[in-house]
Amino acid sequence: MKRKKIGTKEGRNGEKCRMRRTLREDWKLFARGFGIICKTSPQYLAYNILFLIMNILSPYFALYMSAALVNELAGQCNGKRLAALAGITVLGQFAINAVKRMVLAARNAWMEVLQTQEELYLADRMHGMEYEHLENPEVTLLREKIFGAMNATSGGLMSLYWISGSLITNVVDLVASAALTFSMFRVVKGVEVSGFLAFANSYWCTVLLTGILLAHGFLTVRFTKERTEKEMKELSGVAESNAYLFQVMGMRGEDIMIFDLKKAMAKAHEKRVKAPWMVKWNRIAVRYGIIGILQGLIPDLAVFLVTAAKAFLGMFGIGNFVLYRGTVKRFIHAVSELVSELTRLRENNQYLEQVYQFLDLPDDMYHGTLAVEKRDDIDYEVEFRDVSFRYPGTDVWVLKHVDMKFKIGDKLAIVGENGSGKTTLVKLLCRLYRPASGSILLNGRDIWDYDYGEYMGYLAAVLQDFSLFAFSLAENVAGSREYEGERVLAALEKVGLSGLVAGYPKGISQPLFHDFDEEGVEFSGGEGQKLVTARAYYKDAPIVVLDEPTSALDPISENAVYQRFHEIMEDKTAIFISHRLASTRFCDRVAVFAGGKIVECGTHEQLMEQEGLYRQMFLKQAEYYKSS
Fold first, then answer.
1. What backbone phi and psi angles, to 5 degrees, belong to 602?
2. Rounded CA gap, 214 and 472, in Å?
3. Considering only CA atoms, which of 627, 536, 550 is closest in space to residue 584?
4. What's the predicted TM-score (pTM) here?
5. Cα 218 from chain centre
6. Quick one: what percent of the chain has pLDDT higher than 70?
7. What residues have CB less than 8 Å from 349, skipping those under 6 apart?
8. Does the pLDDT at position 399 exceed 50?
């Protein structure tokens, strides 16, 4: 079984991908992304669209009403009409601003949780995929790229919020400015003038002015596209560097402080993060800024001359002269921004492709349908029958033809050197992976035939890489926001944490960590290990798997756990994995793994009588506890 190759063939900056994507493909990428953000944040989108429309209409309303007032002042100057126009202007602007403020407040409230909602959407997909994908380094790298782009440059789904908003703004701007500017091109017949004034009132002038504006628009499209592509190219490497630095500073701060690695890190990333891209970015901005100014001189001059000539001829009032000057500028600006956002949209699609690769990872996990037989005598038997396994993408067999059987109430210790297959055995039992050959049976049926949720209800596992969450202590023990206080206290008592918890002001309701509560408490490694062990006891499953449950405990605490081992487990089946062989003396049987196989099996006393691997390992460890 080989891992599926994750990712595409494009280079670091996605150049090949951009060259190969058609407009139709880009549109599909955008449409799918827009559908996702509509699903995850419909409230924000609704308020944002309403705000953007109101925000665009506001200046046009002001321009139009100002033109009407100026025309009236320059024309008949009717007092009642002036008062009416002034009242409409003031009240209309007040109403627009009031609605804008209310909509803006609602939009900003939803904006605070935008990134959290997108992260939760991706996390939900991640938690629902096969465990194989979670351990696949290519999937891990893909996930880091997605969240790195999201945090460093808001690339991917986050960019769609801003880009879609800008697209709506510029489209509305384009339509509104075009509608208000259209009357500027009309030609009035019967006007007796000559020279430039006659030309200004001719269809040839309309054709020429339209041609100038179209040429300006074409050049704007070209230069804006060039500028945006160059800017995005400079940013592509910066996103990865920023994400890496953020991760390292946040997760490996101790090493950085102890070994004074700050200067080394800064120098290592200076060329990618600091001077070069900033200098290039500024050069791009200055160059295309100057091009934009020079490029806009001709259309600005043409519009000024034509509108001035037509106003002089009385074809429209002086207010319309001001109106057209403003609307034409807004039209040109809208074209430029629209092209810029469309280009950014295409550039952002390289990040969306990564998101979709992650979302489209196959979920081939079979969840089973059979119910686990509920027995009053809790007589359950688990059997590993000729089980072999190798991790996807490798040719190394981690487990080879393992045969093992145990019943409820058995206490089994699994020992062996690193890499002997002990933890892999637990992963197979927890259905994180399916055996490559052979089968694992529960009461004679393959565990993969059972409904996943119901099967896992019969199993509690404490793995080496455990997790604690920024919830209350009780919620961490129960693994749920809802819990039974008495059961939580009983579980904490079993692992020796009841005294510690009793000293907290809020008891079992005391929050863990400082992420969401300043009164949160921090646990040491040993205390954390005890807490996750309490989680297994709280679940009260008939089968309990403990993978190195005392690795972070001091010898005294470890001995206390071992002394109470039988009392804690009662009639449960316990599978105990540990490097510290002292734990095996409290188990009914010991299975010794080497090279993916069970090489020895028996009680502690039986194995110590043999000249085998177990005896060798036990005596070797015992030397460290003997006085010289």
1. 165, -170
2. 64
3. 550
4. 0.64
5. 38
6. 81
7. 18, 21, 26, 29, 30
8. yes
